[in-house]
Design goal:
The chain contains 11 helices and 4 strands, in the order αααααααββααβααβ. It has 203 residues and is mainly α. The strands form 2 sheets. A two-stranded parallel sheet has the order 1-4. A two-stranded parallel sheet has the order 2-3. The longest helix has 16 residues. It holds the Pfam family Fer4_8. Keywords: 4Fe-4S, Iron, Iron-sulfur, Metal-binding, Oxidoreductase. It comes from candidate division WOR-3 bacterium.
């Protein structure tokens, strides 16, 4: 395991600040079990690692820089590699791989909201001062439409030149990485970087 669990002094500062401490996940206990030589998780602990919100409070509070959250991420990565995932999570990962988003929505619908807002879509080789990358949730959840409207209206009133990538944009991969699917995260990162690097922009 890549995480250095042996710096932990079992002070419990990680657990005392954890927002899910009253659930099944106790990060201090988990580290202690691995310090004692635990080789594999119990069924209960295998479920508990998915309760972690990855807020990193435990890592920030740790006086020995143990990075407890990294243990959870390592265990999730192991679960992904062994296929020990809930059906809902498998569907989200498959959707991200196929369509570039976890919401099981087709890529062609990514900027359907732009029919109303008419924001400039910047293609590879074209130029824009500010290129804006938009979260998958904002693309597909209509409840965020007013947020987009207000954000873009502010930019327009400030005479800021901006544009978006459009349907070619893929998930940023942040949550994919936190789930433990490192390979898919790197693939998404590479796809987005390739597109972004082909667009002439200042920022």
């Amino acid at each position: 395991m890549a995480v250095n669990i042996y710096t932990c002094i079992q002070c419990a500062r990680c657990a005392s600040g954890c927002p899910v401490i009253f659930g099944n996940l106790n990060i201090r206990r988990l580290i202690y079990l691995y310090q004692l030589g635990l080789k594999s998780l119990s069924e209960k602990d295998s479920e508990a690692i998915w309760e972690c919100t990855t807020c990193a409070t435990c890592s920030l509070r740790c006086p020995k820089d143990c990075q407890p959250m990294d243990l959870v991420l390592e265990l999730r990565k192991e679960a992904v590699e062994k296929g020990r995932l809930k059906e809902s999570l498998i569907k989200a990962l498959e959707s991200t791989y196929l369509f570039g988003n976890p919401w099981q929505e087709r890529r062609e619908k990514r900027i359907d909201w732009n029919k109303e807002l008419n924001v400039k879509v910047v293609r590879p080789g074209e130029e824009v001062e500010n290129l804006i990358f938009i979260c998958c949730t904002i693309h597909y959840d209509t409840r965020f439409l007013n947020l987009l409207k207000n954000f873009f209206n502010i930019l327009k009133k400030l005479n800021i030149d901006f544009g978006i990538i459009g349907n070619d944009e893929s998930c940023c991969g942040n949550e994919i990485k936190r789930v433990g699917e490192e390979g898919l995260f790197l693939e998404l990162k590479a796809k987005n970087e390739e597109i972004i690097n082909k667009i002439k922009k200042k920022r």
